[in-house]
Amino acid sequence: MELAYIPSPSRGVLYLGPIPLRGYAFCIIIGVFVAVWLGNKRWIARGGRAGTVADIAVWAVPFGLVGGRLYHVITDYELYFSPGRDWVDAFKVWEGGLGIWGAIALGAVGAWIGCRRRGIPLPAYADAIAPGIAFAQAIGRWGNWFNQELYGRETHVPWALHITSSEGGRVPGYYHPTFLYESLWCIGVALLVIWADRRFQLGHGRAFALYVAAYCVGRGWIEYMRVDDAHHILGLRLNDWTAIIVFLLAVTYIVVSAKKRPGRETVVEPGASDAPAEDAAGAEADGAEADAKAEAGTEADVEVEDKAEPDAVEAKDEAESAKKS
Fold it and tell me: Would the pLDDT of 278 be above 60?
């Protein structure tokens, strides 16, 4: 009898009448909002306009979802195109199956389109949203908990995940909660990038590259613990090889970029720095106009008083003459 474990939800979807409310989808949506919110704060702090991150996310998020699904379907094609399988299931994103590698790759294409339309350098945008993406991954991984998927080897540690479903070849039991390990790792990655960015003033895409490299380290050992079906190359799971290659590319980019383009961008969004100056100039002009009107009003009052004073004296003299007569 296990005294402590992480229970799995009895189901990953609730129904509001005919409308399904899926835990996996909610985790993805919440993660996107967190990424955009934090990215917007960091973008403004770096000299950009409020709302720019969300505008570009309109391009990046759909591309990222498509890329994540394509990577999963391509690398696990036998789940959808083998004999006895229904290829329509490849479109059922709500059942799980988004590869972060494809999501980042194609999401970057969408972000590049959005940045190009606004004349913004993609590396600067990537640096701003990097910690937010890591936090989004941390939240999104809980979608796997709702679906009872992507767990590790069998274990009896107090934090073991209790799998109760037997669908899709699952064997009920207690397993390493690799979704939780990756969620906690992603939080650590986000905090690392925020700290390093403040400490070393990372720029030109190096904060984003640090996020990628740090995530790959964690994904490597977490992937090694997983027991779900996967393609193997030379004894390693495909995602392990992907993590190794992407890690090397990210580290290489950090080193080369630091030599070629040290420091951080001085301008991340054209015209953003002019907006406060224009507002200040407008306020100064309004103030000057108000002062001019007040001064004109004062002079008019003085003129009226000057004209009124002789009239009052003349009226007084006439009154005194009338009394005498």
Answer: no
